[in-house]
Amino acid sequence: MTNKKPANGGGGGKIVHYYRKTEPVHSLLPSIQEELKALGHEAESAKIEMIETESCFNVKLTESLTEEQSKVLTWLLAETFEPDALALESSFLQSRDDVKKPFYMMELGPRMTFTSAFSSNAVSICHAC
User: What is the pTM of this model?
Assistant: First the structure.
């Protein structure tokens, strides 16, 4: 993990970003290509060779984490069998040096202020530890 300084968030806390590399749904690429063709973009559809995905966790901190708290948070956000697929403040998709062809990045998902069941459970776990 890199130790890049976190961005400042509103409300007196700072927001740190954890990125977890994920496997895209098997049918995602064919579905996107099919939808583009249906919209009349067959040439663009043929240009898409692969899709990579990652999840971003925006963690608002009111104070710096201790080493033990950082370990617990990393354990909570990392995949059990792929702990190296989690990075602090460094997107796997933006830091690709091996890509020679042009690529496009699209971010999808809820706003940072959106609370999901996962985030509610994660906050509860963090408060309990």
Answer: 0.69
